Amino acid sequence: CGERGNEMTDVLMEFPEIKDPRSGESLMKRTVLVANTSDMPVAAREASIYTGITIAEYFRDMGYSVAIMADSTSRWAEALREISGRLEEMPGEEGYPAYLGSRVAEFYERAGKVVCLGTDQNRIGSLTAIGAVSPPGGDLSEPVTQNTLRIVKVFWGLDASLAYRRHFPAINWLLSYSLYTEMLDDYFRQQGSEEWVTLRREAMRILQEESELEEIVRLVGVDALSPKDRITMETARSLREDYLHQNAFHEIDTYTSVEKQLRLLRLTLAYGEEAQNLLNAGQPLKEIFAMPIRERIARAKYIPESEIDRITQIEKDLRTEAANTTGGVA
Fold first, then answer.
1. What is the secondary structure of 176-233 as a DSSP string?
2. 105-138 pLDDT, tens per residue?
3. Other CB atoms closer than 10 Å to residue 115's CB: what's the count?
């Protein structure tokens, strides 16, 4: 909605190459595109959001789980502002119509889970709405962003610096949040992932600590950090590069099950734990960072779903190698 035409061309070129991990078919076969680029009439841009979510509701009512991505709701709001101006309506903040908040709410409130009508009462459909907001100059205080944040409970903050470093998805883990985390804890426990909650909190603690330590590194350099902080930085680097980084075009890394995510996270945090134990036992940092097992940890995300027991084996080998090294130091 309102974006450049070449971006839609990129979608048409790239989506057919992405395979559905369940069916093996092209993702394009289960995708509907509604394109109203910036050079199209303003009325078309205003209507495109409603067209897209109505199509999504059609499939939801058939019992499917549907995701609608609106890119971008900021351009849609600009179309509303232009139409409002031509109708000579009373402008609100920054020229947007006074009813901007209610229109944004009406869009997101159409998402949800429903029991479909029909003879089969067990047929359930769901609709997830994902809206991309493009604030001018990255100003999160502008009306479209603020009205969106008042309604939604999940925020993914895209970070240009991550994209420049070729870290995809370029979602800033410190800016982003979800108000559904506690609700989902029971789901992960039902999946047999009792450790998930503890591991997730530990990973976030390490990433937040890394952000604080980066200020010191920028001022005086990494050599000013204590050995314990150096290990924290290294564990956070492993979390970023070996766990959070994902290649959508890699046949294995494009999709990861909950069970594999859990094992990868446990493996990454186990490395930080064992590194701290080795440091406490008197092992030099240089030798800790040179452990041969590190390369296997970095490549673990490319292990196929059918062989995820290899990830657990890498964790066992890590603890064995650390125990042998600790015994040698003692």
1. -EETTHHHHHHHHHHTT-TTHHHHHHHHHHHHHHHHHHHHHHHHH-GGGS-HHHHHHH
2. 999 999 999 999 887 778 899 999 999 999 988 8
3. 12
85, 4, 88, 2: which is closest to 41 by C-alpha? 2
How many independent structural domains does the chain possess? 2
Domain range spanning residue 53?
5-152
**Confidence band for 275, pLDDT divided at 50, 70 and 90:** very high
Q: Is there a single domain that holds both residue 225 and residue 117? A: no
Specify whether 135 is located in the same domain as 194.
Answer: no
- The answer to the question of residue 157 being in a domain is no
Mean pLDDT of 302-315: 95
Binned at pLDDT 50, 70 and 90, residue 44 comes out as confident
Over the stretch 143-158, which tens digit does the pLDDT of each residue have?
999 999 999 999 999 9
Query: Are 239 and 133 in the same domain?
Result: no
pTM equals: 0.86
- 17: tokens are 């190459």
Distance CA(73)–CA(103), nearest Å, equals: 11
| Pick from 45, 40, 46, 66: nearest CA to 55 | 66
CATH of the domain at 233: 1.10.1140.10
Tell me, yes or no, whether 53 and 120 share the same domain: yes
Task: Tell whether 168 is covered by a domain.
Answer: no
| CATH number, residue 133 | 3.40.50.300
Question: Are the C-beta atoms of residues 248 and 27 closer than 8 Å to each other?
Answer: no
| Residue (of 268, 273, 275, 272) closest to 296 by Cα position | 268
For residue 8, the model assigns a pLDDT of: 85
| Max intra-chain CA distance, the chain | 81
Q: Look at residue 71 and tell me whether its pLDDT is greater than 60.
A: yes
Same structural domain, 59 and 132? yes
- Backbone phi, psi, residue 87, to 5°: -85, 0
Q: How far is the C-alpha of 61 from the C-alpha of 324, rounded, in Å?
A: 59
Q: Which of 29, 54, 44 is nearest to 76 (CA)?
A: 44
